[in-house]
Structures are given as structure tokens and as C-alpha cells.
Amino acid sequence: MGSPTVVIIGQAGNKFILGAEDDVFAAKQPVTAEAILGKESILGLTGFRYRMVKGAMMSFLKPESLQNYLKEMDELVKRLLLIETKETDTIKAVTFMKKITFTIAFNILFGIKDECTREALFEDFNLVLKAIWSLPVNFPGTVYWRGLKARSRIVDRILPILRKKSEELSSGILSPTSDIISSMLALRDQNQQPIGHHAIIDNCITLMIASHETSTILISLMIWKLARDPEIYKKVLEGGISWLHINAIVIQAAY
Q1: CA distances from 100 to 58, 139, 235 (A)
Q2: CB neighbours (10 Å) of residue 114?
Q3: What are phi and psi of 191, to 5 degrees?
Q4: Rounded-to-integer distance, Cα 111 and Cα 149, Å
Q5: Could you give phi then psi for residue 235, rounded to 5 degrees?
Q6: DSSP output for 128-152
Q7: How many CB atoms lie within 10 A of CB 154?
Q8: pLDDT tens digits for 56-82?
Q9: What's the pLDDT at 248?
Q10: What b/e string do you get for 53-70 counting C-beta neighbours within 10 Å, with b at 16 or more?
């Protein structure tokens, strides 16, 4: 991104980068990433604060936690499929995968279920994602400028949600295990002070972008492979039908 660059290769270089202490070698994001993700994003944190934020995130992202939401994920995907195919037999796979991953993340990870808010945020997150990999030219009309404006709108939309969740957390309506936002609202630093709303927003944006893109690419490639390889498609279909058959037998036996 226009900054002085050093390329380190080999075993010794890897050992230095991965094993160095924070006061010797620390990660620093490009100018565009820092502006979009925020200065308190986990990608730029070190030491106690890094471990604290990472712990809050991983409490929801580990497999044993996510499996509790499988039923809700399944229902969300079915509902989105029905909406998307209501008047057509053809859908754009990558665009639809983006909607699925975005909806699941906002509903389950962040506990934001309002459809109007989600739709507005979906458009803005697409803009900030493009801005991260753009030239840092803050001039009206540039990709970077549009990304900064989109980030401001995201902050304006999420701040009221944070305040509401904070009140619900204090009154006992929510618990720190309800979603990632509630978990981070309950965090306290070494001085027993909350980490602040803007730090939570920075890490929500970071987590959303990280999970959104990786999941979308993986699912899209899986669909591409199924579409191009009839043999694999047939095996997956047979496996799905077999699972449905076994599941139906188990349900009948239960009754």
C-alpha cells in the first residue's frame, strides 16, 4: 500500500515473526485497513487487551458453541432460499452466499435481527470491504472515500444497538453469553473499566468482514465444484437423501 516493505523468508524469519514479543515486533495494518476497521480492532491489539477481546470472540466461535445455533441457521437459510427463488429459478450464487453469511452472522453472532437495519448494513459492509484494498485517497468519489462514509453510517447504526444491549445487560434481560456484542459489553480491563463502545464497534466490523468473506468464498467454491463435477454432486445428493431417510426413521421411532 505504498509503505516501505521488508520481505522475510525461511525458518529463522518465521520464528522471529511468530515468536517475537509485542515490544519487539507487533502487527500493524495498512492505512486503509486501520481507517476502516478502527484503531482498536483485534488485528492491531497486543498483550492483555488482545487476549481479552479474543477470548470474548472465541467463546462464540468455537464449534461446541456454534452447534447450539444449527437449527436457527438452518431455518434462516431455508427462509432466504424461499425468498430468493420466489419468482425465479435462477439465483446469483456468490451474491446469495454473501447474503446468507451476512444474515447468519448478524442474527446469531451479534443478535441484530431487524431486517431494515440488516439490509442497510449489508450495502455499507460491501463498500467498506472494497475500501480496505483501495488506495488511501480520501477524495469525494474514490473507493476509499465511499468506504469511510459507509463506516460512519455503520457506526451510527450500531451505536444505538450497543446502548440498548448495555441497558438490557444491566437489567438482566440479556446475559454476557447472549451474543458477541453482549460478551464484549461485559468485558472489563485491568482497571475494571469497560472497553468502550467504539472498541466494540471496531471489533464487530473486523469480525464481520473476516467471517463474511472467508465463508462466502468457501461456500461459493463448493457450489462451483458441485456444478462442475456430476460424480461428487451425485454422492452429496445421495448422502443428503440417506440422512433425511435415517432422520425420518428416528423421528417415527421417537413417537
Answers
A1: 21, 33, 24
A2: 13
A3: -100, 15
A4: 24
A5: -65, -40
A6: HHHHHTS----STTSHHHHHHHHHH
A7: 21
A8: 888 777 777 778 888 888 888 888 888
A9: 59
A10: beebbeebeeeeeeeeee
